[in-house]
Amino acid sequence: MTTATTKMTAKEIRQRFLDYFSRHGHTVVESSSLIPHNDPTLLFTNAGMNQFKDCFLGQEKRDYVRAVSSQKCVRAGGKHNDLENVGRTARHHTFFEMLGNFSFGDYFKKEAIAYAWEFLTVDLGLDKNRLYVTVYTDDDEAADIWHTQEGVPRERIFRFEDDNFWAMGDTGPCGPCSEIFWDNGPEMACADPQCNVGCDCDRYMEIWNNVFMQFNRQADGTLEPLPNPAVDTGMGLERITTVMQGVQSNYDTDLLQGIIRHIVRLVGKSYGDNDKDDVSLRVIADHIRAMTFLIADGALPSNEGRGYVLRRIMRRAARHAKMLGAADPVLYQVVDAVKELMGEAYPELIARESFIKKVIRAEEERFMETLDNGLRILHEEVEKLKRTGEAQIPGPVLFKLYDTYGFPTDLTADIVRQEGLGIDAAGFASCMAEQRAKARENWKGSGEEAVSAIYHQLHEAGISSEFVGYRELTGFGNVLAILKDGQQVSGAEEGDRVEIVTSLTPFYGESGGQTGDRGTLATERGEVRIDTTHRPLPELIIHVGEIVSGSVQQGESAELAVDREVRQATCLNHTATHILQAVLVNVLGDHVKQAGSLVTPERLRFDFTHFSAMTPAEIAQVEQEVNRRIRENAAVDVREMSQEDALAAGATALFGEKYGDSVRVVRTGAFSMELCGGTHTSAAGDIGLFRIVQETGIAAGVRRIEALTGGAALDYVNRRDAMLRDVAALVKSDVGQLESRLRKMLEHQKELERDIDHLQTQLNVGKSAELLEQMQDVAGIKVLAVKVDEMDGKALREFSDRLRERVPSGVIVVGCVFAGKVNLLVAVSKDLVGPLHAGNLIKELAALVGGKGGGRPDLAQAGGSEPDKLPAALAAVTQLVEGLVKG
User: Fold this and answer.
1) Can you give the pTM of this predicted structure?
2) 615-624 own/partner pairs: CB under 8 Å, 24+ apart
3) In this predicted structure, which of 85-89, 306-310, 430-434 has the lowest mean pLDDT?
């Protein structure tokens, strides 16, 4: 394959693209996070235009109308659920970079086409004779521009329908598009003599897509014209790099070869010697980029939503590492190669390197613990299907592998495909649906609520709120809008639930983890109890409440008053959250990052990245340190500054969060400085007291602390003290002697339990002697099948041990009813194991009492739900043994 005369690195291509469009009046915009914000329709950021969606819709105005970016993207879920192709084809990826230039109501088709053609043919020096273009079926305008303006011959302009209409998803901005294709040469063509642009083979490769945004697709499929036609373009960095470097596969470019070489060194393999190994090396090279960037942006492996997609990617890569012979965790070491290749362009990889490695290693280790058992079960099922001639792994088996052993279904499908088998996807879905029947509120999109259309309508009508609540807790404003049942109304009456927008308000609207203010809104004719306040858009504050007297009309003047006690309690908790984060970093390490928070008047909740449960000593240390900071009573200083200055000064920002050019910085003493729009105390000492009430895990690598401050913390301490006094009184002690008193009582209890166990053992010896009289001879084998008094599983095993001591060769079956359920145990002496198997025997007997079970060849236990059938099950033992012995 030949290309431009100068061979460029991917880094050079990326920078040259950004520089070209910067010279042509485009603002260079940083890549947004892979975790979409305020867009419930997206699992991951999957296109360059995602972060500009509201600009295309006319719902957001920025101080530029032209933009250019290199956007990190992931396509690995939903419609892009084709993981099995990654590593097997030249161009399938989970992670990729999309170079794009954008116009928001500025230039359109003529300029977009000119920019694309000039960049490719002049800046990159591509041969015009190897470039082809496509347009939408009836887009004569674009076709004419290509021919008359850029000189592309008509015979190299193709028209398509489905492939030339682009949409970000099922809803949102969309429009006709025009693509540019590169001819890889006749040697890459398929056998079809009609092979041409549009063929699925590798000869004609799309490298650039110009989307002419003209419509907004609604949920019902209708297309509404956008306020201002716009341009969204995309060129995959991986694809254009293959062209510029003269290779046939994305995996042969410097974007991925450096990673592959790193993996080769770790596993001791060679690339290019073995097709099977090559696939595994490519899978890991692709997947390590996806997992590294996803974790850097805040995703963590789990069994739901985007966390599950990440887990699928990680475990697929881990299995391929095992196939390459890696016996120990190895993926986390490949992060070094990703950081080396991409850390300069994406500095978050360097900042979060340690955390990324810890998450990957923890998931590798967790998967390795279950992988062998899962593979054994899968192998047994495959052998069973081969014997019966069936072609699919059943849904229940898929679900067991998923639920118990952490095997994503596509990983199972990957493994059994090599045996010529498929999977029962519908059966698996049925099992999943059954498991989730009681919890159908499943994750959707980004997990964030979409901003209601009515709020956008208010904003577009020029309705906005001025927030004065940092300085004042009361204020006067005009009622600009009233919403009732989601519809705008001119007025509302007593008893109505309403949402009210005023021109000015001291009420803080819920955002940044802090709940909204409560209070009252009063007009000349009515009063509203405000239960909460929302901020769906930066300049729109919504007061939610009930009219408790009179009526409220649009246009009236209103007096607004925030509940001072509620606000103060919220401030205590918010400032304490900042102090807590700073202390956690000092105590646990720099890997601690905020993963979520909730600040209410009643309590605070802080989620943070950490890999193990905090020890009691660590919890105590954090609590003591926070209270020490509170007693120091450092001033809380709040000021506005540029984001650049704030970050340079060391302020902590929530990664992936959108901030404006001017930010609010909250500094507590010399130990905490964060970008924050919330409300705070004037000094740390205002908090008074801080108490941690719970520390738990909420996801892999994420811990949660719940805490109380101020009066709520004091109430908590008082309740605990009262409880201690009550417990002391119960055991006839005082609080000071309570611990020693309880220790003595527990030791006495243990002595009594030992006495009981001794007596029970003596009793069992006597019982076993009596039961041995019921021993039968079955085909020359001693068989004892008896019902005994009520025992739990442990006691039943101990009792059977007494019997086995007295029966060196034979089969012992013991059953009882305990707590309304059947307990069964089968023991087979070692000399009889072979013809007889305790696990197989118990399986047959358990079925007779409505249960399931299994175990070792010499010892197995089971349970059952039908106690009335126990005698019949025990009576069946001799026949079962005889049948097995005689074969």
Assistant:
1) 0.66
2) 618/587, 618/588, 619/692, 619/695, 621/587, 622/580, 622/583, 622/584, 622/587, 622/692, 622/705, 623/690, 623/691, 623/692
3) 430-434
